[in-house]
Amino acid sequence: MTRDRRHNVRPLDLRLVSRLLGRMAFWSLVAAIVAISLFPFYYALISSLRPGSSLYEIRYVPSEVSFANYVSVFREQPFALSILNSLAVATGVVTVSLLLGVTAAYALGRIDFKGRRLLLLSILGVSMFPQVAVLAGIFELVRGIGAYNTIFGVALSHLILTLPFTVWVLTTFMRDLPKEVEEAAFVDGARPWIVVTRIFLPLLWPALVTTGLLAFITAWNEFLFALTLVLSPERRTVPVAIALISGASTQELPWGNIMAASVTVTVPLILLVLVFQRKIVSGLTAGAVKG
């Protein structure tokens, strides 16, 4: 009897050990990915809190905390104005992208017309062009309409990056919505605009939050167009303002100020993601399952 019990227990013990080792390996991998992802931001944060020459010392835990770099960023240049400029540009880009994206997605996702697939492929192809390839054309367009060195010109250029992506994603979500709801609304006498605004928008709310947040992050972090189309310091956005931070001499960069500015403009994005994280997950998984 004793030998039979031992013989039956050993395979069970091996399974438990293998499961335990598998879970340990999985969580170790997760911990490594999280540490690698968060370490650059953590190091930027502790570097922004270091005073003076201690910036050049390799320390992973700050021995002294100072907010002098943050005060210096806002005192030596109009960085607060740059934040407002970026906020205005990103908010305007998201608003226009969602408005045009929803209406275009309804036409492309719910109405069957000739050339629809070609138009969708063209929209997707526009988003594949690198920024440098369209920079000259955007510059001539913005200068031609008199929007050079203005916030409007920067926002207009950012739409080229966000609008194709927004239209493509919202079209995918719009196509998966049940047709019975739309047909019932048409039977009751509703017009397409009423169907889009009062029926589809509540159903598209997770997708709108996801695409809107991604468009906001893209417009907030865009650098090349903002650098090319703006000359005045009071009209710069935060990526350009950070890139143009300089010290007393051209050979010395104020890394403390640069780190403080980078942390300042990254924190709002982290807060937005934390606030809307449930909607983001819902938006990313809404089109995965039909029925």
CATH architecture of the largest domain: Orthogonal Bundle
Q: Fill in the CATH topology of the largest domain.
A: MetI-like fold
Oligomeric state, counting identical vs distinct chains: single chain
For the record, give the distance between the C-alpha atoms at the N and C termini, rounded to a whole number.
55 Å
In this structure, how is the largest beta sheet organized?
none
Helix and strand topology:
Elements: H1 2-48, H2 68-76, H3 79-110, H4 116-128, H5 131-144, H6 151-175, H7 179-187, H8 192-203, H9 205-221, H10 224-229, H11 238-243, H12 255-275, H13 277-285
Compact overview of the structure:
The protein has 291 residues and is an all-alpha fold.
General description of the model:
The chain is mostly helical and 291 residues long. It folds into two domains: 2-56; 69-285, Orthogonal Bundle (MetI-like fold), CATH 1.10.3720. 76% of the residues lie in helices and 0% in strands. It is built from 13 helices and no strands. It is flat. The model is unreliable at 287-291 (pLDDT under 50).
List keywords for this structure.
single chain, 291 residues, mainly alpha, 2 domains, disordered C terminus
